[in-house]
Amino acid sequence: MPRKEQGWVTFQTSEEERKILEEFCENSQRTKTEILRELVRGLNKYSSPPISLSNSEAKIETHGDELPIISPKKPLKVSSRNILKGIIKRITTGSVNTEVTLEIVHKVELTAMITRVSAEELELFEGTEAYAVIKSNDIVIAKD
User: Fold this and answer.
1) Which helix H or strand E contains 135, and what residues bound it?
2) What is the pTM of this model?
3) Where are the alpha helices (DSSP H) in 43-131?
4) Average pLDDT in the 137-144 region?
5) Please, what's the b/e burial string for 32-59 (b: 16 or more CB within 10 A of its CB; e: otherwise)?
6) What pLDDT score does 88 carry?
């Protein structure tokens, strides 16, 4: 039973959405409540007002398959449909390539090999947010 300061949220899902949530919960060994609370808490990252650049009315937005870029124009559009936000957990830099590991959700990690130069240009650092952009069998790294 919830405490007085807490409340219930009830919503309908399709059979497919319910199965996806249940499978995710089973694989991550977390409850539906834990998963949904984590998703809701993540929403405050997107509730801040639009960022203006100089005197223009530019803002940074994301819609589905678009990755935001800092530009007075519009966000970068990507043809990939699988874009997963994560936190950089590990960066291993070699002479030519850099191995970047993102934690997508608790204990779920993806690792991508990118060029050292790309990693430097993206200014990737452990503990910062980045995106795994998956196209076919390739994974590339993107950053706000």
Assistant:
1) strand 129-135
2) 0.44
3) 116-121
4) 77
5) eeebeeeeeeeeeeeeeeeeeeeeeeee
6) 94
